[in-house]
Amino acid sequence: MFPIQLKRLPGNEDLPLPRRMSEWAAGFDLHAAVPEPLELTPGERALIPTGFAMAMPRELEAQVRPRSGLALKHGITCLNTPGTIDADYRGEVKVLLINLGKEPFTIERGERIAQLVFQRVPEVSLSEVSELPDTVRGIGGFGHTGK
Ligand SMILES: O=c1ccn([C@H]2C[C@H](O)[C@@H](COP(=O)(O)OP(=O)(O)OP(=O)(O)O)O2)c(=O)[nH]1
Ligand SMILES: [Mg+2]
Fold this sequence. Notes:
The chain is mostly beta strands. The protein has one helix spanning about 70-75; strands at about 5-10, 30, 40, 45-55, 60-65, 75-80, 85, 90-100, 105, 110-120. Deoxyuridine-5'-triphosphate (DUT) binds near residues 85, 86, 89 and 95. Deoxyuridine-5'-triphosphate (DUT) binds near residues 94 and 96. Belongs to the dUTPase family.
């Protein structure tokens, strides 16, 4: 069990902190900390505050992922999905939403706009080499196996 510290930012006492909406949900829903309703016109994007900052163990990252319901019903998604929250980031968690739908969409204060999913980040070491180990695939990619 990894400890995650959440710090509510001033002026957001009315908002829930990220929470699971079912017992085994992978995602903790994020609430919009917009001071007033914010309209996103079709094609428009906006960086939405969530009203909290966090600290987690260095072996973790948190991914900011879209909510499928908002995407299906309104075309609202995260532009940079999945967003990456680094373990050493202490700023406010924010959500970069874009309206890919055909209608304007209004984000209300407190609305659940995205979800946080925690992941373990493997420790790696990068090194430069002159030759890579051979594989059957080789350099084939981008659909080289057919449609
Ligand atoms: O959806 C997101 C993505 C990022 N961040 C914050 C946390 C993350 O640790 C930081 C930097 O994100 P990223 O590394 O994706 O952006 P960058 O363009 O590389 O910025 P930087 O140079 O600050 O790393 O911004 C968010 O709050 N929400
Ligand atoms: Mg970065």
